Amino acid sequence: MKLTASAETFSELNADMEGVTQDLLQDLLRSGELEAFLKIRGWKFGVQVKLLKTSRVRFDVPWEVKRVPSMPPELVNA
Fold first, then answer.
1. Which of 4, 5, 13, 53 matches a 20 to 30 Å C-alpha distance to 63?
2. Does residue 11 lie in a domain region?
3. Which of 57, 4, 54 is nearest to 31 (CA)?
């Protein structure tokens, strides 16, 4: 998804990343673009669901934090 989040502590980072991911997927659901977004990436729902644009759902998205050797220049002071 190539989302970026930053925080002072690792626990704050976890919360920020969770929030950013939920916000993105909720926005895609409301705009009607969620299914196409998932399909393009070869993803699918883990269970069969019928979602409406007005549905308020919690998305369970696995993710992990990886250490990189150095921060890409385009992310410095972003």
1. 53
2. yes
3. 54
